Structure prediction request, 272 residues.
Amino acid sequence: MIKLATMSSVCPDLTIDQTIELMQRLGYQGYEPRVEWNHAAGIEANLTKAERQTIQARFANAGLEICCLATSARMATPDQQERSKHIEDLKTYIDLAADLACPMIRIFGGQRSRDQELAAIVDYVVEGFTQLLDQAAACGVTLLLETHDDWSCSAPVRAVVEQANHPNLKILWDFMHPQRMLEKPTESFQTLGPLTAHTHGHDGIYVDGKMQVCPLGEGFIDHAIPLALLNQSGFNGYFSIEVIHRPGSIHDAEGVLAQYATAFRTIMATAS
Prediction:
């Protein structure tokens, strides 16, 4: 059965205790901290070992899991020095994930070089991941390449994971972005399904030609088909809500989480 998670970007001003209380009340099972964005929960690389153990225990004692760390790392960045910095950051995040008993880390592809063929860029991305995969395996952490930005289409993402051919590199299927590229969910599932370890959900409508996030079920993004296909395939990972609120902004975190939870359960009731 697919489980429900939230990213900290939905509730950036909530402390860990406030987050746990809200998750329990609304029936969420997983928490996905968005590091580097200064969210009030404070899950960042600068935590001490003792602080990490305390946070992990607080979630575990509440029956919740820190299911994924969402990073800003971009593995396709053409500048090698910049990519090296991302790789060094990810080494730190792998250790953080291990200390939090967090099984996955989200990684972007990012903007691709415009003067190379895609096959060469895939080689470059794979080479970057190979610098991390032994450490990830030793720590019991799976790295995830997300369908996002220049990697919104499914085929290049699958090409990276297949070429790396490592059990600790999988796919994060964000349902919105392949559909923005006019992929049908059935097409995305055929390409990504067996390699998918985590998902992101956020519905959207087009306003003046640009996508704007909206309540689940009220937009153009089909969540029912991909959730049904994954559920029927035996996927038992998370559907993680990604609605981005800036810290200190006026927003209704509880309202968003309640609406998405209700709509998710409605979808899942017919997803078998």
Notes: The chain has one domain: 3-268. DSSP finds ten helices and eleven strands in the chain.
